[in-house]
Design brief:
Elements: H1 3-14, H2 21-27, H3 44-52, E1 61-62, E2 65-66, H4 68-78, H5 95-101, H6 107-130, H7 134-139, H8 151-158, H9 165-170, H10 177-195, H11 219-229, H12 247-257, H13 268-274, H14 278-292, E3 304-307, E4 312-316, E5 322-331, E6 341-350, E7 354-356, H15 358-371, H16 375-378, E8 381-383, E9 391-393, E10 404-407, E11 416-417, E12 431-433, E13 437-439, H17 442-449, H18 458-464, E14 471-484, E15 488-490, E16 496-498, H19 505-515
Length: 518
């Protein structure tokens, strides 16, 4: 671009348009009747700020016609569903008619168009940046503590005269590969929801489980479904009505993806999972996208992430790739739920005491002591008055925390720890604890969190995990720990996994989104 052209372009963009009385009047209200969701009271202050800075001149019109930026932004709003957002919030289907209304040249139609686009962009930008139910994230301690910017000013600076409005809006989205994978999975399940048979064509439940070598009339229908889902490769023939390879492997893959025991046997649970409508799976992915938007945009260090309904932990490395994976046991669904929150791990304790919460002591331990006076001695419990609890379990091989406790101070008194009850990791559903999180590989996790402290060799860690007394080790730098809740995740391979809503938090979020509609 030549200097002269640049000056002329800047002058053209900077020349203030005349104020519009109709726009001033509409912007002073808290509802715009032409919108599919008329109430914009949540954004009324931002709307007034946006137009006051422009002296109530239109932002998206030039001589009564939509600017190129306006047309590009409308195209983004029309694709809002691809982000797992609700189209009516942004008038996604109403823009063709609103654009046609501009032909009248009526000042009221021009003002209505300009204000409608500003309101929809505020909603869309806010929903990408903070999520549609940020109060749910705040309750969980996951929302970013301070807004990065004032959205009205951001729209004025980044969208009104943007060379690439779609890219500018995209910059508000979570900057994670997992989010982008989830977005692609949402598009795929939109296609599946539109093409696969609806509830009337559900698979029958066999009278007894179908095992390899058995016959069952519905095997062809199972094969058709698994081909559609990608669990059975296209072109792979099955031996229906005999249940055999490659269908057995396809069923096993489906079971793995849906949090079921991967035994290749077609039983009630497997058929129930196959009969879940694709619209419900789509909703799970949509809620996962919402929760991705609650995540911090940056971390002080690569985090450790525990996904409750998956019963799984992932530790992210310095390259922000997953470097450590393991199973976990979380809090029982009834009465002992593990909370969703985020804190920083500051230290770990080798061979820790278990400070038994008083609620557990009174409800579980003292009744056992009443029946067996030697119960405390046999299980290495002692009463004391030196700490916050009445009962503690001494360090040792029977200690409920095993060899190490990972501490990230929080008001819930939740932490990660080892466990002598390792047989529970073989189960598919693993909600058995009182709220804390038991890890499958405590020694590996200890090596991971101490990897920047070279004096802590694997041999020294093994020795510390078997000592007789507690040893506290401070981390060289704190590690963020995120306890999250997602019933749909997309692996690096693109494979989509679904899990049961064990704490009914999907149901609660679904309701919250419905009640927060503008």
């Amino acid at each position: 671009m030549t200097p002269v052209l640049a000056i002329l372009l800047f002058a053209a963009q900077s020349a203030p348009a005349p104020p519009t009385p109709q726009l001033r009047s509409l912007a002073a209200q808290s509802a715009l009747r032409s919108l599919q969701r008329p109430n914009f009271s949540r954004y009324s202050a931002s709307v007034r700020h946006f137009y006051e800075a422009r002296n109530y001149a239109p932002a998206w019109l030039d001589a009564g016609r939509p600017t190129p930026e306006a047309q590009a932004l409308i195209a983004v709003l029309e694709r809002a569903r691809s982000k797992g957002l609700d189209e009516p919030d942004y008038d996604a289907t109403a823009w063709p008619a609103r654009l046609q209304s501009l032909a009248s040249g009526q000042p009221a139609a021009l003002a209505d168009f300009d204000l409608a686009l500003t309101i929809c962009l505020l909603r869309y930008s806010s929903n990408l940046e903070y999520g549609r139910a940020p109060d749910q994230a705040e309750r969980a301690g996951l929302q970013r503590p301070h807004p990065r910017f004032f959205l009205a000013d951001w729209i004025a600076a980044n969208l009104v005269h943007s060379l690439n409005a779609a890219a500018a809006l995209s910059s508000l989205e979570p900057p994670y590969f997992g989010y982008r994978r989830t977005e692609r999975a949402f598009a795929e399940y939109q296609r599946l929801a539109a093409t696969l048979p609806k509830a009337g064509a559900q698979l029958p439940t066999p009278r007894k489980s179908v095992k390899p070598g058995d016959s069952w009339p519905a095997l062809n229908r199972v094969a058709d479904l698994l081909r559609s889902l990608g669990d059975l490769a296209n072109g792979r023939e099955t031996n229906a009505p005999t249940y055999a390879e490659p269908l057995v492997s396809a069923v096993t893959r489906f079971q793995t993806r849906h949090g079921l025991a991967p035994d290749g046997i077609i039983g009630r649970e497997t058929i129930a999972a196959m009969n879940v409508p694709m619209s419900s799976r789509l909703r799970q992915i949509e809620l996962a996208l919402e929760r991705w938007r609650w995540a911090p945009r940056t971390f002080t260090a690569p985090p450790i992430v525990v996904n409750i309904p998956e019963f799984f932990l992932r530790a992210v490395g310095d390259d922000y790739q997953v470097g450590l994976r393991m199973k976990v046991v979380v809090g029982k669904a009834y009465g002992h739920r593990t909370p969703v929150f985020a804190r920083e791990m500051t230290h770990l304790i080798f061979r820790p005491y278990w400070e038994v919460p008083d609620s557990i002591a009174y409800k579980e331990l003292f009744p056992k002591l009443a029946k067996d006076p030697s119960y405390f001695v046999k299980n290495h419990y002692v009463t004391h008055h030196r700490g916050p609890t009445l009962v503690r379990q001494l360090p040792g091989p029977d200690n409920a925390l095993d060899g190490v406790k990972f501490v990230f101070p929080n008001e819930h008194d939740v932490y990660l720890h080892g466990t002598p009850a390792t047989e529970l990791f073989a189960k598919t559903r693993r909600d058995f604890s009182h709220g804390c999180i038991r890890v499958e590989k405590p020694a590996e996790l200890a090596r991971w969190v101490l990897r920047h402290q070279p004096e802590w060799t694997p041999e020294r860690i093994a020795e510390a995990m078997n000592r007789d007394t507690p040893l506290e080790v401070k981390l060289a730098r704190p590690i963020p720990v995120l306890i999250v809740y997602g019933t749909a995740i997309v692996l690096e391979s693109g494979e989509v996994h679904f899990f049961n809503d064990i704490y009914h938090l999907d149901s609660a979020l679904d309701q919250a989104l419905a009640t927060r509609r503008p």
